[in-house]
Queue: 2 jobs
Job 1
Amino acid sequence: MDSFWLAAKTAFELVVSMDADLAEIVLLSLRVSLSAVLIATAIALPFGAAVALSRFPGRRALIVLLNAAMGLPPVIVGLVVYLLLSRAGPLGSAGLLFTPTAMIIAQTILVLPIIAALTRQTISDLYEEYDEQLRSLGAGPLQMIGTLLWDGRFRLTTGVLAGFGRAIAEVGAVLIVGGNILHSTRVMTTTIALETNKGNLAMALGLGLILITIAASINAAVMLIGDAADRRYG
Amino acid sequence: MPPIVATAEITAERAATDRSDGTATEHPLLPLVVDGLTYRAGNQLLMDQVSFRIETDLRTVILGPNGAGKSVLLRLLHGLLQPTGGRIAWNGASPDVVKRRQAMVLQRPILLRRSVAANIDHALRLRKIPRPSRAELIRDALAVAGLSELASRSARTLSGGEQQRLSIARAWVLRPDVLLLDEPTSNLDPSATIIVETMIRAVQGTGTKIIMTTHDIGQARRLADDIMFLHRGGLLEHAPATEFFHGPRDRVAARFLEGILPA
């Protein structure tokens, strides 16, 4: 038990003093996951809305697939991206394997279905409510999508935050395609896994504290945004 | 709540320019000719061979008990539903062609999750009205609805009466040639009802043809110039209001007026 408290104390000092190595790792984590969520959001919002509004054969199947893809195992995504980017793979010539870019690609694939599926659900519900009114006002399909995305902005924000929570906390995908290389592709989760194996509990715990704080803040933000939206917009 | 001060002025002004002698003038979407209109949903016949002709630009009220097909008829006239049979011609044009020259107020107001003013702004933006002209139109519309002081409030937090007024203001700001209203006061208390009825009169005063539904006989008496009595998807009587309320020719309509709901 003593070693635990010692580790916790050192961890706390590392965080408070903003240790250079630790800061680098935290910043890379944020850069990778925020980029991935940004890219995924830019694709998933219009895509989810378009699926919600359109009717075509195979739409049901696509929605089932999308919902199922919310639970993609990170290691599988990592493996697939690894195969695509490895020297022998179809995209091998780009030389992206074991770079932050590869990690961003993997996490984008991981969170895109989450944001798209939540967008599809949110926009479908709103569409049912607004459809007649918007048609009566003479809205075209693009105007409808714009209106629905804006009116669903609070619920959509929580979907995006859920995607970010998933990205920042996953270890499997970034470990496989990033390789956990010091000063290059080492992020919070991969460091925690590595340092724990090495027995360097202080560093692992320090990062753990930061990760928990970020994850908890996201969940709090999701709740607060939902409450504020309910109070203001019903 | 300030009961519509600006309305009277606007009404008087428009009436003076648009309808100087008080008789029906040339209306761009009239006459409305409906012939053999039928609407079927699944195996339910909701509208059965309805034919009529509306020439007057005064207020037409579609009266009938719940389930008569009043809402379906309005939606068909507006092009929100496609008829399974028959024809609708607004001065020769189909509803799809003239939808943008009409506006409709749905029974339950569907307001956007934005401020009161932003709801009206949205309707104007959909019609591609340039930003500089929008501000004044919004101000006028809010004044007509008596909602000027609530402009920045979230539309969803308004009372039922305020929501319905906003919904009418949003329709009216588009300056439609025809305004369709589906049971505009069915969820309102008497005082809110009177305000909404005053607004409807004001809108009609600006040259907009009103077609509305109600199951409220009192409201029909107060507002109707022209009555259509609908029952079970069929049009049983279409007559000037004075004539209809003096003594309807149709037996079911007569019983409805006596307060005996036709079974």
Job 2
Amino acid sequence: MSDTVHTNTGFFRAISSQSAGVSLELDHVTKHYPGQPAPAVEDFSMSIEPGELIMFVGPSGCGKTTTMKMVNRLIEPTGGSIRIDGKDVLSLNPNELRRHVGYVIQQIGLFPHRTIAENIATVPKMLGWKKERIAERVDELLRTVQLDPAAFANRYPRQLSGGQQQRAGVARALAADPPVMLMDEPFGATDPITRERLQAEFLRLQAEIGKTIIFVTHDFDEAIRMGDRIAVLSDRSRIEQFDTPANILAAPANEYVSSFIGQGAALKRLALMPIAEAKLGPAAGAEGPKISIGDNLRDALDLLVLSGAPRVLVTDADDRTIGTLDQAGISSVLGATVPVVGAPAVTP
Amino acid sequence: MDTSFKWSRFLKFLAQRWDEILQLAGQHLAVVVIALVIALVVGILIGSLVWNRPIGRAAALTAAGIAITIPSLAVLALLSPLLGLGWGPSIVALAFYALLPIIRNTVVGLREVPAQIVESARGMGMGRTRILVSTQLPIAWPVIMAGVRVSAQMTVGIAAIAAYVAGPGLGQYIFTGLSSMGSFNAVNYALTGTVATIILALLIDAAFIVIARVTTSKGLRA
Amino acid sequence: MTATIALPSVQSIRARERTLKVMRLVAPPIIVVLAVALLFWWISTLPLDSIEQRTLNPTYITARIREHLILTFVASLLVAVLAIPAGILVYRARSAWVRGFFLTLGNIGQSTPAVGVVILLAIVWQTGFATALVALVAYSFLPVLRNTMVGLEQVGDDVKEAARGMGMTRNQVLTRIELPLAVPTILAGLRTALVFAVGTATVATFINAGGLGDMIVNGLKLQRYPVLLTGAVLVAAIAVLIDWLAGIVEDFVRPKGL
């Protein structure tokens, strides 16, 4: 970091030139509304690495959205500090700060009186980008979220479907290429099919650009599917467990976290594991349904159950059989010693 | 003297004075437009200041509501000692009456802007004034325009009374008719003044439909 | 921009709304009483010349107020009695063309300058109270008719259908369902007509129909500002009070649940 970063303008300039994520630190953050008996957020501390997609999961009213909104100071903390890339956000001008933090909400909030292109161009315009650069960026973003620029750039929000509006909202938040993004149940208002597609697209996007993201959701499966790390939150935004999805599924910290996981923890874990993690049996002379090594273990189990075969053949990219996999092989990845039907939750 | 109404005399009256009539109509239009512009600026300003402050809002709407029930002749007569005769008291009085529908509709329009749009604007780093000017007012514009239309109709009618304090416009013909009662042209003066005012009001209303359409973003038309 | 948000409790919001509602209800009469009291106090401190004494005395003032109020209320009553049934009839007319015609006519009526109607009628007929009355009724007729029609039309089709489905005759649907639901709009129209009537009755002074307009016009003509001010404040007070009372009646008569 150069000397100029120590000034606020210098900080924003440095941040603007990076599109990959930056570190985010919350230190004993508290939010206490006057007149309320208990704080909405109590002593929240978390350290987020650059490029991580962090999920905040918890029931309504637990304070997850309040915590997230303190990062861009839509809500002001009453205690503690928040640092983006080492810089205390309380020392920055709030409006400037928000122009460098992407913000997506559930109801999207697209401006109905502006075209999609104008919507996306909002923050770049405020930051003084040149017209050509803005036009290029709008085009690029629309393509990224799979909305054909020729068709959608000059349409108005009311002319788009719900899923399309959601994607336009994400494009708008990405417009100025902020290193940090805050997303509050962005896919919550869509139907399950659209939601799954949006999640997949978003993961693909994140793999390309790697921003630091806080993603609030009450849907635990969404959290498992998307997060690098998950924070399971209870009242007053208390962190019950903060770990990778695999670790949380394998070893829930307490009953509260288990209640989120619900039934089928093993299957959920399997969905996170690629077949490559399993020890494959010999390929020679084996017969059975085929599955690619790029798929995950739950797909393999699915295939076993559906086909009724004793084992599946695992193929590589050229469709050559490189090994076999049976149910015992799958269970051993989970760490079960005795694969008994109807057994309680596995011990690691 | 035969003071009854005759079509032939009326048409002759119109033919002789059509340029004067148009001139008066132009004056009538001008004074209405000036008053509306003033009321629009002041009204939107007041509306923007009080729309989300319950006490200020109640005070502004109550005050404006009371003001609008005051008979216009009273207001015009009260302004005359202060502002003289002619355009001065007329414009002030007209702007005064045109304020209420505009303030009320500005408040209603701003309140109807969905909260999530304001929130996403804040989240993008827009300051309060910027949000008001670039987002809230444009979205509230159709409602505000509806208020301006109502104000316009009202103002055209009150402008006719303003002729009593020598205000400009077609009201002058109406009052000429009054003062020349008994002469054979009295009815022609009064009729022309009244009908021309009605026509002007309808034309202005039609113009506003077009203006509202043109100034409203395509994205907002239902 | 960085203030901490104090979240008021639901009860305190409701309490504040109630206080504001009460204040809005009570404000007009209080303002009127204050204004009139202030006016009379100020007049009493003035040395009045003979012209002013002839006008600023109880007899004269009450006479003008009486004339003004009679004109206002008689006209409004006539309008209600004539225009509301007419509105119902037009609403029930089978032809959409007829309904459209009267709606358009009503809109034109709204653009008509009241002073023009008053003076025109006086020229072709005669000056005086009767003319003013007729002019007032003519002027307010169309707006009340229009409001009656609009009020009846905005009753939802689903409600009417449900009523017919229960076996009500068309007249029963009218009296039990459509009219009660249209009452708020009709009353709003009458309230506006009343306020217009006060205003137009002021203008009636030009055709020798009396009323407080006399004081305003004479005060201005003779440059006796106390007279002018008294006439203006009194007519404004009457207008505000009548509007306020009409508002209370409106709230009172509104069917519960609307």
